[in-house]
Amino acid sequence: MKSLTKLFSAVLLAAVATSGNAQPIMQKQTLTLAGAKKAIAAAVAKAKELNAPGGVIAVVDEGGNLMAVERLDGTFAAGALISIGKARTAAIFKRPTSVFEKIIRDGRTPMVALNDFTPLQGGVPIEMNGQVVGAIGVSGAASAQQDEELAIAGANALSMNTNGAAMNSAVTFFDSKTVAAAFVKGQPLLENGEYKIHASHRDAAGKAEVHEHETDIIYVLEGTATFVTGGKVVGGEITGPGEIRGAGIEGGETRKLVKGDVVVVPQGTPHWFKEVKAPFNYYVVKSIN
To answer: Facing residues of 228 across strands?
Structure first.
């Protein structure tokens, strides 16, 4: 009996010691404002890829507090409130809002009485290292399905594993025929929330441009051009989120571009292909900031 008592006491002391060594706090992943903007940029890129007629993209933290929101031109006014509601619902319940839309459609209507509850498809949790750190909501695209596609693109831009590599990433390959065809049309090869790769072609001068959120890395493959950077855009007009176009540039620095040249144009810097000797083909890698 004494041996049993001693054994029990030893086990109890060990348990107390173990609980005493338990950590009083735990580390958590936190969504930053930069991360929220990155998710929105990815959703906007997807909207352009799908030719979405509009859309409002909202990002909230894990508690449902609004961090950032962007409204594309042509989106109906109520889209902002709906997108925020979708994001909050996905964050608080840690599940896509499409799940709740289906539950309610199947008959569980009392759920609509919950506060701050928007059970409409288009809200998706944002996860990092297996933790929900926030959510993204989209409203105003071509359909509820497209709302969700844009939201998923935004959430995936921040889905990272423990060593910092993107989850579910895949190598992208374009064969020579695809690349050649892209240069003929002057069209993008790839666009996502972090960067874009354009196979660009010009036969004549273009408009002055400013990209507020993109750094352009230009590599000339063929032809020559007179390229102006800096200065002031003449007749500048906003043509899209973070995009300005104009008739030309006053002042600035002029360069002659030839085959093999590389130019890096930082975000917010006016630039203009003032003169082009056709055919002029060049790669543009756009880093989204």
So the answer is: 254, 272
This model's pTM is above 0.70: no
Across 33-70, b (16+ Cβ under 10 Å) vs e yields eebbbbbbbbbbbbbebeebebbbbbbbbbebeebbbb
The answer to whether the bond into 125 is cis (omega within 30° of 0) is: no
Query: Which run of H or E residues covers position 96?
Result: none
Q: What is the count of structural domains for the chain?
A: 2
Q: Which residues of the chain have pLDDT under 70?
A: 1-27, 109, 111-113, 160-170, 193
CATH number at residue 76: 3.30.450.150
The answer to whether the CB of 284 falls within 8 A of the CB of 216 is yes
b/e for 108-135, b at 16 or more Cβ within 10 A?
A: eeeeeeeeebbbbbbbbbbbbeeebbbb
pLDDT tens-digit series, residues 150-183: 999 999 988 754 344 444 456 788 889 899 998 9
| Assigned domain for 80 exists | yes
Q: Do 185 and 268 reside in the same domain of the chain?
A: yes
82: in domain: yes
Rounded distance between C-alpha atoms, residue 228 and residue 238, angstroms = 20
What are the backbone dihedrals phi and psi of residue 173, each rounded to the nearest 5 degrees, phi first?
-125, 135
